[in-house]
Request: fold
Amino acid sequence: LLVASAPLESPRIDQILESLKRFPKVSGIRQIINYKPSWPRNKKRGNFLENPQWQEGFARLAGHDLAYDLQLNPHQFDQAAALGAKYPEIPIIIGHLGSPILADLENSQQYWEGMRKLAHLEQASIKLSMLSYIDPAWAENSIVEETVHQVIELFGVDRCFFASNFPVEQHLGWSASRLYSAFLKMVSHLDQASQQQLFADSAKKAYRL
Reply:
């Protein structure tokens, strides 16, 4: 499985996607669209969700049978949900819980209102990952744990899955064993079938493996 990068705003996006589809393992596209705070070049490129040419490129994913890995900020949730509703045939995998910082979860109305709209999209799944972005000591933070529990409840175990975010987590002191032990502890109250979904089966479903 490969999730490739592609500039959906490019006037050549059809040719780019066609060339990527020549590789059988390519199943989706990931283009970081976080804006304000902007990752990593979007300060100059702006909010792609407001860019008609980018929206047209997003629409092209359907014809190439590609999913989209959506990495964005909480204040962009509403626009993303509207786009997803317009193109229900394009699978969407929301990255990193929607990239909240701790302040987004402490003043959480915008986060949860937008997240509910995203969860309403039947084609949307969500990665439970990059928790260190919220708090480097997230395993001891009850707000982070409660957020993960609420997201799982909102989407259901069949549309949520844990992800490593390696090698970034490794650089932040989270080895694979430490990371997955903390994930497992977080959902230890769930039955074995639900845990199997969160650690494997839901990811396979989202990426259509």
Summary: The first strand starts at residue 2 and ends at 4.
